[in-house]
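Hi Y.,

Following your request, here is the sequence exactly as I used it, all 137 residues.
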Amino acid sequence: KKIAELEAAIVRQQQTVSSKDAAAAKRTEELEAALAKQQDAAKAAEAQFQQKLQKSEATAKDLSAAEASAQKKIAELEAAIAKQQQAVSSKDAAAAKRTQELEAALEKQQDAAKAAEAQFQQQLEKSEAKSKDHTAA
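Below is the corresponding structure, written out as tokens. Let me know if you'd prefer a different format.
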């Protein structure tokens, strides 16, 4: 009975590990999709600023100001993309660390189950030996 309980606990632990891995993978995909969306937005904004610069027939001062604004916006978007990439990396690292922790806990549980099984086997053998002694007597 104890062995069955331990085996059931191991199965539950494995399901938890699989579930957490799936959740981490889904979250990573979501972050990567958000990052791709932001990169597309940055490219679109850059293209829009380039069109505005090309179409503009204003004075050199106006062109210079528009270009500076575009460059600032591009720098801001690039900084935001870098921030997103760091967040994705951080989430991946956290998910990997959690997976390692869960695998270690699972291994510990499996070792405990094996030890309990060995102990049970010893007790069973002692009991059988006593039973033979009583039968012999």
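The radius of gyration is 32 Å.

Thanks again,
Q.
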